[in-house]
């Protein structure tokens, strides 16, 4: 018997890990046991093994930019350092011309394959703004996929438009929207949302809009923002709700757990959360996420954006298979002063090579563009 098998068998969570190695995902009770366990290296051993079994020694990434099209927002989330109220001096909304110029420059300089189109809840923007932007991008830059608008942005567009969210999704898809980022989920428990983002859509609304998107064949990512006021039980609920929806629709392509970055946010000023969750918590979240979603949600992102490249390299050994995007031009996280939020494709390739993996450049739908 190998030393590792002995370690697994003698662990409190050994039964869960052995089940995972045999293709049986943890159940809801197991989620809490995993979250309360300190056997993080063992979790990583198993989740890393499951990941390499599926993907080999390879990590994917997408050459993309984030287009934060507006910072105007009426939702006042306490964890956000990016937004400005309507009419504030340094508020902005990009024009179609500015959008075209940014995408054009990024295509020429970085050969991007994806625009991540995200912004505030701007009550002055009608559906036509988004339709025009997406049509422009897809027509003039057909190789560039549009990954955009979280469920809460879809919700605000629907209220501006006095239309249903499903109708808005259908029109946006016709205009060129290809997939939806999972932002705005935070933790899918309303008692948590009531503290950190009381004006944002509820958990049920987030799940409903995602289900509507999936029913229209618009795939999505799911996210989790941890490291603020949530308990382990709240994270259990979050995992459970996502697995329930995924079993029904199979519409999530990826899961992205990212840690809350408190700098410059109201939550930090109020003293609710003063520090980020740190590296060990990140590795634990990555490892548990792989165990929870193995065989259900195919991709797991390493989330370098709030934790840096070094942690992302470790995360790739603990169950992540995707490095995420280059995110040149990102402004939401950079408002928290959280490290550098500019990373070119070549730097990602170098970081992946440093851990002895091959780098797979992918498109918006996780199809291979080329290997490096
Ligand atoms: S997180 Fe999004 S919805 Fe919340 S305040 Fe910031 S921009 Fe607005």
Any overview of this molecule?
With 372 residues, this protein is an alpha/beta fold. It contains 16 helices and ten strands. It has helices spanning 3-10, 14-21, 28-36, 40-55, 96-110, 127-140, 151-161, 165-175, 190-196, 203-215, 232-249, 266-269, 279-293, 304-307, 309-317, 345-354, and strands spanning 58-62, 64-68, 114-118, 145-148, 220-226, 252-259, 299-300, 322-325, 358-362, 368-371. The strands form three sheets. A four-stranded mixed beta sheet has the order 8-1-9-10, covered by helices on one side. Strands 2-3-4 form a three-stranded parallel beta sheet, covered by helices on one side. The chain is globular. Residues 73, 75-77, 80, 82-83, 120-121, 152, 197 line the site of iron/sulfur cluster (SF4).
């Amino acid at each position: 018997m190998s030393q590792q098998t002995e370690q697994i068998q003698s662990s409190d969570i050994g039964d869960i890990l052995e089940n995972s190695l045999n293709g049986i995902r943890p159940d809801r009770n197991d989620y809490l046991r995993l979250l309360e366990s300190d056997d993080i290296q063992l979790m990583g051993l198993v989740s890393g093994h499951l990941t390499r079994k599926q993907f080999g020694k390879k990590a994917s990434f997408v050459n993309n930019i984030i287009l934060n099209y507006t910072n105007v927002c009426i939702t006042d989330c306490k964890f956000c350092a990016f937004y400005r109220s309507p009419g504030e001096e340094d508020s902005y909304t990009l024009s179609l011309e500015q959008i075209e110029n940014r995408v054009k420059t990024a295509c020429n300089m970085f050969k991007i394959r994806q625009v991540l189109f995200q912004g505030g809840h701007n009550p002055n923007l009608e559906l036509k703004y988004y339709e025009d932007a997406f049509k422009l991008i897809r027509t003039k830059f057909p190789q560039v996929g549009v990954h955009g608008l979280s469920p809460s942005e879809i919700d605000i567009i629907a209220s501006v438009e006095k239309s249903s969210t499903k109708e808005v999704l259908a029109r946006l898809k016709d205009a060129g929207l290809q997939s939806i980022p999972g932002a705005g989920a935070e933790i899918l428990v309303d008692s948590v949302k009531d503290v950190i983002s009381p004006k944002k859509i509820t958990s049920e609304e987030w799940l409903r809009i995602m289900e509507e998107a999936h029913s229209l064949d618009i795939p999505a990512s799911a996210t989790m923002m941890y490291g603020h006021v949530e308990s382990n039980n709240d994270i259990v609920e979050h995992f459970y709700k996502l697995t329930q929806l995924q079993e029904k629709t199979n519409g999530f392509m990826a899961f992205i757990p990212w840690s809350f970055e408190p700098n410059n946010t109201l939550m930090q000023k109020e003293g609710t959360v003063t520090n980020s969750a740190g590296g060990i918590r990140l590795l634990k979240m990555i490892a548990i996420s792989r165990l929870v979603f193995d065989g259900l949600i195919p991709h797991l992102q390493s989330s370098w954006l709030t934790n840096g490249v070094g942690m992302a390299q470790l995360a790739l050994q603990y169950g992540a298979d995707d490095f995420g995007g280059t995110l040149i031009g990102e402004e939401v996280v950079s408002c928290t002063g959280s490290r550098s939020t500019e990373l070119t494709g070549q730097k990602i390739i170098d970081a992946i090579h440093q851990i002895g993996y091959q780098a797979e450049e992918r498109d918006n739908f996780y199809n291979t563009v080329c290997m490096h």
